[in-house]
């Protein structure tokens, strides 16, 4: 298998990967191009997710963290980021599914689960035998999840009784398990639970009428006296600090995904500019179009450079919350600019799905907001800069 560098990776950052990582990245790219791209617009428009692709996609070892229980080979954070980028440059909804399954769900169990929980659940999630969702955000608690959780857990003997609600939970309409974060009534600390979705009192309802990431199956979840055994409580999740350890792993992945969305829009605009003729010649020959495309490529290149370094810091053990927050905030803002320029370069055709750029343009809005809004990430960075906490 020969790895082909992307033209949108203008400085050739993929050369930083090992040969094995480049081969794995090519496998992911081939799957996305041959299996996902032909149906991405259709499923986006229908608001459905192509569940029939899940096991085949997971078999590509797409972005798997290097857990000893499941990793097919030792891989770097830069590889995992570039895998998210590769997925998103074809379809951000597919990348979001993987981000939940292999990042948030497997990440939670990998970071906060006991060895017994890791042994039981990680292989099942990695193979697609079990699908998962991650329940942190609530109807009245998004940015203030650290102290605003209203979902509660109360221990009764060897069981926990969970009550509350969650919102915007990806994969939740079809997941077999959902990681639920709830505040322990006894000590006020946030704890995590592996909740089978078949448990009585658990209900998931699809959120309709979205304009972004339409193929992602987001749901409202209600939990009414949901009982789970102590053995399904994540044994090393004892406060929101442990929740934050998981988010630190995944926030930079969203930055990488935003680069992929920008790449997809940029590549679509380049293709269109070479084919579309106006005034007797391809619009690619017009200076203003070339300026748009050069600006897009500059944003993409700067964002890759930032994400490469923040991923290297994760592997080195030096990455802090403010590092991933800066990457997420900066890269999603540059993505928003890039998809707008790409759409603009296509004129009216930029708003129809036929040319794909419209899908990237719409999907960018969701990435801009989830895993911490732009404003919240700015305050995390601002606190690191000034030493002053400006959170309300």
TrEMBL record:
<dbReference type="InterPro" id="IPR006091">
    <property type="entry name" value="Acyl-CoA_Oxase/DH_mid-dom"/>
</dbReference>
<dbReference type="Pfam" id="PF00441">
    <property type="entry name" value="Acyl-CoA_dh_1"/>
</dbReference>
<dbReference type="InterPro" id="IPR013786">
    <property type="entry name" value="AcylCoA_DH/ox_N"/>
</dbReference>
<feature type="domain" description="Acyl-CoA dehydrogenase/oxidase C-terminal">
    <location>
        <begin position="245"/>
        <end position="385"/>
    </location>
</feature>
<dbReference type="InterPro" id="IPR009075">
    <property type="entry name" value="AcylCo_DH/oxidase_C"/>
</dbReference>
<dbReference type="InterPro" id="IPR037069">
    <property type="entry name" value="AcylCoA_DH/ox_N_sf"/>
</dbReference>
<dbReference type="GO" id="GO:0003995">
    <property type="term" value="F:acyl-CoA dehydrogenase activity"/>
</dbReference>
<dbReference type="InterPro" id="IPR006089">
    <property type="entry name" value="Acyl-CoA_DH_CS"/>
</dbReference>
<feature type="domain" description="Acyl-CoA dehydrogenase/oxidase N-terminal">
    <location>
        <begin position="18"/>
        <end position="129"/>
    </location>
</feature>
<dbReference type="InterPro" id="IPR036250">
    <property type="entry name" value="AcylCo_DH-like_C"/>
</dbReference>
<dbReference type="Pfam" id="PF02771">
    <property type="entry name" value="Acyl-CoA_dh_N"/>
</dbReference>
<dbReference type="InterPro" id="IPR009100">
    <property type="entry name" value="AcylCoA_DH/oxidase_NM_dom_sf"/>
</dbReference>
<comment type="similarity">
    <text>Belongs to the acyl-CoA dehydrogenase family.</text>
</comment>
<keyword id="KW-0274">FAD</keyword>
<dbReference type="GO" id="GO:0006635">
    <property type="term" value="P:fatty acid beta-oxidation"/>
</dbReference>
<dbReference type="InterPro" id="IPR046373">
    <property type="entry name" value="Acyl-CoA_Oxase/DH_mid-dom_sf"/>
</dbReference>
<dbReference type="InterPro" id="IPR045008">
    <property type="entry name" value="ACX4-like"/>
</dbReference>
<dbReference type="Pfam" id="PF02770">
    <property type="entry name" value="Acyl-CoA_dh_M"/>
</dbReference>
<keyword id="KW-0285">Flavoprotein</keyword>
<dbReference type="GO" id="GO:0050660">
    <property type="term" value="F:flavin adenine dinucleotide binding"/>
</dbReference>
<feature type="domain" description="Acyl-CoA oxidase/dehydrogenase middle">
    <location>
        <begin position="133"/>
        <end position="226"/>
    </location>
</feature>
<keyword id="KW-0560">Oxidoreductase</keyword>
<protein>
    <submittedName>
        <fullName>Glutaryl-CoA dehydrogenase</fullName>
    </submittedName>
</protein>
């Amino acid at each position: 298998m020969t790895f082909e560098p992307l033209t949108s990776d203008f400085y050739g950052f993929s050369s930083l990967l090992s040969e094995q990582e480049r081969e794995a990245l090519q496998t992911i790219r081939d799957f996305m191009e041959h299996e996902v791209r032909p149906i991405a617009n259709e499923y986006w428009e229908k608001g459905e997710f192509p569940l029939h692709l899940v096991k085949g996609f997971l078999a590509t070892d797409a972005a798997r963290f290097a857990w000893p229980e499941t990793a097919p080979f030792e891989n770097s954070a830069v590889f995992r980021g570039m895998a998210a980028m590769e997925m998103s440059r074809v379809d951000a909804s597919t990348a979001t599914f993987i981000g939940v399954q292999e990042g948030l769900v497997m990440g939670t169990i990998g970071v906060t689960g006991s060895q017994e929980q890791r042994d039981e659940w990680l292989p099942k999630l990695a193979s697609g035998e079990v699908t998962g969702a991650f329940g942190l955000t609530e109807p009245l608690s998004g940015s203030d999840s650290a102290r605003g959780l209203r979902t509660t857990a109360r221990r009764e003997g060897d069981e926990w009784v969970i009550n509350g609600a969650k919102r915007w939970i990806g994969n939740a309409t079809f997941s077999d398990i959902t990681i639920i974060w709830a505040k322990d009534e006894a000590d006020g600390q946030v704890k995590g639970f592996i909740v089978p979705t078949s448990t009585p009192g658990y209900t998931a309802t699809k959120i309709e009428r979205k304009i972004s990431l339409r193929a992602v199956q987001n749901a409202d979840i209600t939990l009414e006296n949901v009982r789970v055994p102590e053995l399904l409580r994540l044994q090393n999740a004892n406060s929101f600090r442990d929740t934050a350890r998981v988010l630190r792993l995944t926030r930079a992945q969203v930055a990488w995904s935003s680069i992929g969305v920008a790449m997809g829009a940029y590549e679509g605009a380049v293709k269109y500019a070479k084919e579309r003729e106006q005034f007797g010649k391809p619009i690619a020959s017009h200076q203003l179009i070339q300026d748009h495309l050069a600006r897009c490529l500059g944003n993409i290149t700067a964002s890759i450079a930032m994400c490469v370094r923040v991923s290297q810091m994760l592997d080195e053990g030096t990455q802090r919350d403010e590092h991933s927050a800066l990457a997420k905030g900066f890269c999603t803002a540059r993505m928003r600019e890039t998809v707008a320029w790409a759409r603009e370069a296509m004129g009216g055709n930029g708003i129809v799905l036929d040319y794909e750029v419209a899908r990237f343009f719409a999907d960018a809005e969701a990435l801009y907001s989830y895993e911490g809004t732009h404003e919240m990430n700015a305050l995390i960075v601002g606190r690191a800069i000034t030493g002053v906490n400006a959170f309300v």
